[in-house]
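TA notes, week 10

Several of you asked for a full example with nothing omitted. So below is the full record: structure tokens for the whole chain, then the designed sequence directly under it. When grading your own attempts, check the secondary structure regions first.
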């Protein structure tokens, strides 16, 4: 008599017709052996492979078919509650056969879903792991771990997440150390080879600069096998803009390349910026060096590393950015570019900027102020990446400024931390803000992770004004939480052109004289008017509390003895502030230092960009 058919819910899950699509693990791998070694958990492996098994996360399920809820890489935990339905109403050998069939399908489905291992809990349902499950896991190559009665599943989950956290910390520490080492290497003589050596050391592999024809322009690390070297040449040709097909290689799809049998690849039109190839025990990655100079042979950075080492790809990406700068147009002219060196020498010898400008090569320049989004400090590698994206080597941290202290005290209720966060008072502010000079013919777009303020293109003699305009644009971008704000080019004269500059200058100094001893009040008033009287946006732009903005504006109104809610008053004050701004630009562009206010016989403050 044939064994009874189990109910639909208890039938053995059937293996899928094809492997399901799984999400790539976003957590570092944790060796299963590390969990088995913990005496406090008491885990014991009963079946499946015992070497090279890694976990990415944990999932607990008592469902007969947990596959729809698996991402791949899990330790799937179960107490076998769902097994009771299989043998319900069935006894003897028929029950054993039904259970064996069910467990075989269960193990097959779990493996097909990408689960890394199966954990079976002893008690309260089962006193031992079913032998049929041990046999099924051995057949399908699924590691099976016994979880003793005294170990709750939450303890196993906690142990896995603790190991994941420690692994992530080690990865981030390693990436940070590699970034610092690569940045230091880029500053050494023969920087390209120094970066290659540092990269090989930190990815524990082989690195090389290869031309599209396979010519090696430098390498570091242990020499690869001939097979790896040949595959590396193919990838270098792909990212170098050439087209190559391997053994039966296919045309590239939307992703830019497609690996055919034997690892062959073919570049899409224009060539991808990066490509990868997998060989036994080796992951090959190639990166196009986009900063190469015109007329020079394009090169690719090729890295051969352990395929089970995700941080290696991140570290290699940083090295690719640095090498793009090192091998770019500035490097093509040599470390001591004649024009830049001459410009620097003339400035140090007292020449006017207007006379030095032609030596720099570009007639017009754009000033960019950049702040790392979220207020985080920007490591050297991030600054190098921004420089590469902007297409300039003239990038430097924005110097911290120490404004004069205000004679009027803040109210006692104002938190000290608000004052410490003001621009110019934060010693770390120069580490998160950068300024750049970019030739006007370069297109400047939004950059991931940065907030940018961009001036209009100007000649060298107007760079001081462009610097202030870029700072104003950055403040506006921060206040509006925009990725990029540009200062528009003036295409028509304003009302200021109708007033005699000397008369406007005297009026501005007279009007703003009560604020002469309070630079912070001048800066706050300037930003507040610029942002149409918004307390919140002004506080965001200046990095202070909105209550501090209110206190300063109230104090400004008292010192000026005026009503700042009056539109006419606001317009007059804005005209005065802009007049002082233009006066500072004219004096700076003339190559003369500003004389003290008392020496000119005109008291009053000057507007300084943050």
């Amino acid at each position: 008599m044939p064994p009874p058919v189990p109910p639909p819910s208890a039938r053995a899950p059937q293996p899928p017709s094809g492997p399901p699509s799984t999400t790539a693990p976003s957590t570092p791998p944790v060796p299963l052996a590390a969990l088995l070694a913990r005496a406090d958990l008491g885990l014991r492996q009963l079946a499946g492979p015992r070497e090279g098994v890694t976990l990415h996360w944990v999932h607990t399920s008592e469902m007969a078919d947990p596959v729809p809820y698996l991402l791949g890489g899990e330790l799937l935990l179960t107490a076998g509650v769902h097994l009771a339905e299989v043998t319900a109403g069935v006894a003897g050998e028929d029950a054993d056969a039904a259970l064996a069939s069910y467990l075989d399908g269960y193990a097959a489905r779990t493996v097909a879903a990408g689960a890394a291992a199966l954990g079976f809990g002893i008690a309260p349902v089962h006193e031992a792991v079913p032998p049929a499950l041990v046999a099924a896991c051995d057949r399908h190559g699924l590691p099976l771990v016994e979880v003793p009665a005294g170990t709750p599943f939450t303890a196993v989950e906690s142990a896995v997440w603790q190991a994941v956290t420690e692994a992530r910390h080690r990865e981030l520490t390693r990436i940070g150390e590699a970034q610092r080492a690569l940045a230091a290497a880029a500053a050494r003589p023969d920087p390209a080879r120094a970066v290659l050596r540092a990269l090989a050391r930190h990815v524990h592999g082989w690195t090389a600069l290869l031309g599209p024809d396979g010519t090696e322009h430098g390498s570091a690390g242990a020499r690869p096998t001939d097979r790896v070297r040949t595959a590396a040449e193919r990838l270098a040709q792909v990212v170098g803009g050439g087209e190559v097909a391997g053994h039966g290689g296919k045309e590239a799809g939307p992703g830019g390349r497609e690996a055919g049998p034997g690892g062959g690849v073919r570049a899409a039109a224009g060539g991808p910026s990066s490509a990868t190839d997998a060989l036994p025990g080796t992951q090959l990655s190639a990166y196009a060096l986009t900063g190469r100079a015109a007329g020079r042979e394009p090169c690719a950075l090729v890295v051969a590393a352990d395929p089970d080492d995700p941080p290696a790809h991140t570290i290699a990406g940083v090295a690719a950015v640095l090498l793009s700068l090192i091998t770019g147009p500035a490097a093509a002219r040599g470390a001591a570019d004649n024009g830049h060196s001459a410009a620097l020498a003339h400035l140090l010898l007292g020449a006017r900027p207007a006379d030095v400008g032609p030596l720099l090569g570009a007639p017009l320049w754009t000033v960019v102020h950049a702040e790392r989004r979220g207020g985080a400090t920007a490591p050297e590698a991030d600054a190098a990446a921004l420089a590469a994206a902007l297409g300039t080597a003239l990038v430097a941290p924005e110097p911290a400024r120490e404004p004069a202290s205000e004679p009027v005290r803040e109210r006692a209720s104002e938190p000290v931390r608000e004052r410490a966060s003001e621009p110019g008072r934060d010693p770390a502010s120069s580490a998160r803000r950068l300024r750049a000079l970019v030739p006007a013919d370069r297109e400047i777009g939004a950059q991931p992770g940065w907030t940018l303020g961009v001036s209009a293109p100007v000649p060298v003699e107007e760079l001081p004004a462009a610097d202030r305009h870029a700072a104003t644009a950055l403040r506006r971008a921060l206040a509006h939480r925009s990725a990029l704000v540009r200062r528009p080019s003036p295409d028509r004269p304003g009302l200021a052109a109708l007033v005699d500059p000397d008369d406007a200058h005297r009026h501005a100094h007279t009007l703003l004289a009560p604020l002469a001893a309070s630079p912070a009040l001048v800066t706050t008033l300037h930003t507040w008017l610029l942002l149409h009287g918004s307390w919140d946006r002004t506080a965001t732009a200046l990095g202070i509390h909105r209550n501090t903005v209110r206190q300063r504006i109230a104090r400004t109104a008292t010192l000026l003895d005026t009503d700042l809610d009056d539109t006419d008053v606001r317009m007059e004050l804005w005209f005065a502030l802009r007049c002082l701004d233009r006066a500072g630009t004219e004096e700076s562009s003339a190559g003369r230092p500003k004389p003290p206010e008392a020496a000119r016989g005109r008291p009053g403050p000057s507007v300084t960009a943050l």
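The first helix runs from residue 32 to 36. Use that as a sanity check on your answer.
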